[in-house]
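Researcher: Here's my situation. A collaborator sent me these components and asked whether they could plausibly form a single complex. I don't have experimental data yet, so a predicted model of the whole assembly would be a useful starting point for our discussion.
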Amino acid sequence: LAKTTQPISMDSYEGQEVNITCSHNNIATNDYITWYQQFPSQGPRFIIQGYKTKVTNEVASLFIPADRKSSTLSLPRVSLSDTAVYYCLVVANTDKLIFGTGTRLQVFP
Amino acid sequence: DSGVTQTPKHLITATGQRVTLRCSPRSGDLSVYWYQQSLDQGLQFLIQYYNGEERAKGNILERFSAQQFPDLHSELNLSSLELGDSALYFCASSVVRGSTGELFFGEGSRLTVL
């Protein structure tokens, strides 16, 4: 399983764009990059998944460079409700889904 | 609402006891995952089932066991409970066998061992 490294915490203010970068130097050809969001005392929620280039949905964008050794989750115009822990996962079609420690995002008014 | 139902939501018990946590996956989902999350800790993968069969094991203690029944609901059994077993236990389900699909998590069962 590819190891991921992401910042332990980040602070932002409402209305700003937040970019959380994840490093995954030993990503394999079959691996996908997936991000989950978790609020306190709740289960994680799938945000976005990509393989290469850029993926966008109604919640976020995911940027993946050509070498795929990193990825960036972009949250446009964050609000207080975006305060959460964000997990970057690199997954192949295996049966394990291992979460790291995640990035704790705190949004201030 | 993810569609995954976990019961009970809260459970308080004593050391040495045994408890069973139940998970009903989303309709149509064949895979069930169990995770443990202690206070301010990350999610620890415990075990995964697909269509009734165990597919992957994580750092699950020998005192813990799980199974998935023919109707696809799953149970996590925790025995000889210790204080350190106090945690949130999450169940997740997905329609596919592997992990590249989206996982839907339940709201968790909060276990407190006194």
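Model: Some features of this prediction you could bring to your collaborator: The interface with chain B takes residues 32, 34, 36, 38, 41-46, 49, 87, 91-102 of chain A (CB under 8 Å). The radius of gyration of chain A is 13 Å.
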